[in-house]
Amino acid sequence: MSDQTGKDTNLAEAGFCPQCGNKMPCAKHGVDTQKPVDLNKGLDIEGAGALIKIEIPNLPESIDAFGKKWTKKPEFHVTLVGFAAKLDKVCKERFGVSNSEAKTKAQEILQQAAEGVQFSVALKDEYKLVERGEDRTVIQLCDVVGMEEFFQTIEKLVGVAVERPPSHTTLYTGENGQAIGLPTQAKLDELAKPLDGEKLVELKTQMGK
Fold first, then answer.
1. Are 18 and 65 within one domain?
2. pTM to 2 decimals?
3. Structural domain of 17
4. Residues 171 and 191 in one domain
5. Which of 58, 102, 119, 174 makes an SS bond possible with 146, Cβ 3.0 to 4.6 Å?
6. 22-53 b/e with 16+ CB inside 10 Å = b?
């Protein structure tokens, strides 16, 4: 059976490249047949920040890739509003309150914005290597259903635009265990390099994908 692109969808469903029949992941075409899965474990709001905790099963505790050792993150999450967004500072300026009141106000706004939103996280077949000084991480990009609705409500409540972070989760860090914050698309573009071709195959082989 073929779709409109001429690719054999039966092969894809069976775990083989629909273009050449190689076992996935295909080194030639770079196709991954993994279907998006809702990995959401719930929204966590703390102070002026909000993140979605997710579960990624069966990843090795450590891998050797690109000539270096990597350690799996002890937990996985997707940051929606990080501390770098300074939502509490925005609240202080917009509502004329004290520092402590601004933090409380920011938390209330996040909780109100999240009401009724059904968040869903689906990992994408897109990985990046992030480096900053001695720190290094491997991240995986993702789509977050509900994120735009969440941010639109925040903006209505505070009356100013709030920048969306690039949706991703950190899979592995260098041996020092230090993650790297990526609060904006500009910061992602500055620090991250795409993992594709042979490097992507090496990464997925190490991760058992």
1. no
2. 0.79
3. 1-33
4. yes
5. 119
6. eebbbbeeebbbeeeeebbeebebeebbbbbb
